Fold these 4 entries.
Entry 1:
Amino acid sequence: MNSVDRTTRMLRACRGEPVDRPPVWLMRQAGRYLPEYRAARAGQAFLDSCRDVERAVEISLQPLRLVGTEAVVFFCDIFVPVLGLGVDVDFAPGPVITPPIRTRAQVDALTRFEPESVAYVFEILRRLRKELAATQTPLIGFAGAPFTLATYLVEGRGDPTRKYTSLRELAAREPATLAALLEKLAEMTVTYLNAQIDAGAQVVQLFDTWAGALSEPEYRALVLPHTRAIAQGIRREKAPLILYMNDAPHLVDAMLDGGADVISVGGAVDFASAARKAGRLASVQGNLDPHELARPREEIFARVREIAAAGRAARGHVMNLGHGCLPETPVEGVRAFTDAVRALAPASA
């Protein structure tokens, strides 16, 4: 394998094939911790930035130039495709839905998602794929998972308590309504991710950030069937699928039953244990806590070596954080993280 071919390294790691070392990228790698990101976003509302093809391409490429990541994830938000369902979404700063979706009539009124409704997403991806071809840098697409999207749609906004009172009430009072909403969101997600793959995404990640609030029985009943449907419905022969869940150590086994090529786990998950469970079933991604990027450079290097050693129990490993970069994340900490991964000794294979 050509050790400088970033795309080959990423795809082989996701599929559990031999690589010299893990590839590295970061969730929220283009974000508020970068002064250049803040400058690019100045004077423009968040959703307008997602629609601005030139600006979104520039923001997507910044981490490649500034902090040494080895993949580009396109600049967007998990709620963008929901606009194609006819939902009124505002950002203040997170998604706000008025009115929340809590009746069967509202679910039935949702428009069938068509990729053309968010055509700018695929133009961004096409531009990025062309830009990245010369350096053979992989392009990552993504989508929000049905349950995580539903928590916002039913609650009306993000719930920092992660109690999801309105969603749980809907599940108890009208389970068929919630099931219909999740099914529509799953169908949208398959269509959306396949359109991203057609536009040039070489890996796709499904963010089920908030599903960790569920017990394992709840997860298996409410979420897992839709995760499996998405894994089966997208063109994974062209782009492997990463399933991300934040801080859900009790759901690692259930995640492995979802059919993704890679499971990505939060910083609170014992990475060695997750990698052993993944074994030959899936590759693993993660899982440095983003707060640790404030440590001295030598400590970040030591932590990367520890995580890499733990990840060897799985068939493949993609180095990443356990959650997204924070606004207060020091840029030098991100650079130390990517430098540390490149400094890893080649795998003995």
Entry 2:
Amino acid sequence: MMNSLSLPSADDRVLTSDDERWADVTARNISGVPFVYAVTTTGIYCRPTCASRRPLRANVRFFASKSEAVAAGFRACLRCRPDGESPVSERSQLIDRVCRTIDAAETLPSLEELAAEAGMSPYHFHRLFRTTVGVTPRAYAVARRRARLQWSLPLSATVTDAAYDAGYNSSSRFYANATGELGMSPRAIRAGGANAEIRAAIGTCSLGAVLVAATERGVCAIDLGDDAEALRAGLIARFPRASVTFDDAALERHIANVIALVDGPPGERNDIALDIAGTAFSQRVWAALREIPYGQTATYSEIARTIGAPGSARAVARACAANPVALAIPCHRVVRNDGTTSGYRWGPQRKRDLLQRESERKRDQ
């Protein structure tokens, strides 16, 4: 496997020697590999990240778990508390509570209010939130507000009512930003997409049937499958009240471009114009995916580091799963840290076939 974005991190390796473990202790590195170290002269065991004074290497023993250290007669450090929740877990739980506060708030709490709830300074809270969630508190709140709006638009008497229910303080500000945030007009969403005009076509490639759907702004859906009728029904279910027209002639160029990503020459340029909506975090992930070169792969952890959110590999995986346009956003090029393939909304076998084909064609160039 060729990883295109960066060298493997500590998250991607297995510690096989005490020298490697000692290197993590020296660097106070959170490697994700479970072990503790004990100091024979003090009788205390610690996490690798403990901020205590560094012991002499000759006085250090390593254990795979805290229970092994206890069985050997060592007691837990009072500073790093290796017998309790890990700092990473505690921080994740804290940020999760803050996210629930944002979700429940009618209006976005200020950064100072959120930081006070977390018991931190605004600066450290902002940095921790972004590292953990992948976006800033404000970007998270905007995404959640957008989700509430999309849910409430079809249920509200007016668009304005839905905007205020979702937490917009000003109708003018809402209308100024809504179309760019939602991907279609608020009234179209409230009407279940009734005013949205979507043209679609179905073609065939070596992976089976391929459906492409587009608005006047760009491609909004690319689906792969074995049954053309199932793809057609799936598109209508996704946009139940939009005006969907199947027009092979109008989508001929788009179909040809998508098929070229599968069966065309290696390195076929992926410059298909898209019209898709997603959270700020998803958009960052999708942009990073489009930068993975043909014939190469990246891990979820590498993508997380690329977008500046190294602790958000799971969120990256969710953004990949939410990708609405197969191939144009090549989420099939993202793999697990050990190089194996994971899930793919268009079928794991298609993902394996795509990766093998791209790798072989790239090698034969």
Entry 3:
Amino acid sequence: MQVVGVIRYPLLSNVMFDNSVTQLVRAEDLATETDAILYPDEPATRAFELFQAETDDCIPVVTREEPHELLGVVRRSDVMHALITQHRRTK
């Protein structure tokens, strides 16, 4: 599976609430390129930095060896939870 783009909620919601086009629009019509990607060996702080610059709630995680091969996604809420948990442990 390869990452070729992301679908942002505002575009999706515009289509989903217009019954005249919901069956005509495909994922490729809504997908836009993204520079916000993570590699599995990057620290959570890198994800945090990306989320500060992005409005998206998810960032794809891809391999370095196979560019754009999707391994999973990191959600904004996951990063925030991890950072809060780490902060509490260090107190």
Entry 4:
Amino acid sequence: MTQSLDVTDLAQLLKVIADETRLRILGALAARSMTGKELAEHLDLSAPTISHHMKKLTEAGVVVMETEAQRHWYRLNGDLLLASKRVPLSADALPAAVPDHLDEDERFRAKVIRDFFDGERLKEIPAQRKRRVIVLQHILERFEPERTYTEREVNEIIRPVHEDVATLRRELVDYGYMLRDRGIYQMARAAPERTRQIAQEITGDEGSWLASLLQVAIEANGADPDET
């Protein structure tokens, strides 16, 4: 069945895929269908990171998930992509569908990740705190909420991102994203209470962001990771 889109639908679709990691995922799926595990290995990403982005892409309809026995396969939705090419654009319609104030926080977050990351590698640790928090949140996606980690394991996860593992590990703890107890680390289950000063450094609804990240990661790890 042929899908139909209007300018508003197209604007929402573009908003979802305007993320470097999601574009890399779509590029991989353009070659062939893959499981979550294959995507993680192909793109050198963690399973929670893949699950987080696949949820966004499948909800938007640009990727379709198909189940075969216990395995979940992902493929591009060719019908939707073809429909997006047929959307009539006009100078009058586009500004109305994509107002300047639409999801300003998400656009800022995407810009920071685009500016400071080369793929999954962090070019430099931002000096400006608002940008640094976004970088820390992006790094947190590499961890699994149900697991505990030794300091060495935390370092091994952070090191492919940036060589200054000590600073990034400390910042994850200082901002309350990772909890540390006698040398053992684990992702926080909820965002901590913030002082007014720290709250000004946070982009968007931190509580909802962390809850969504935890939910997606836990759901992903509920199945056999080899079959996700």
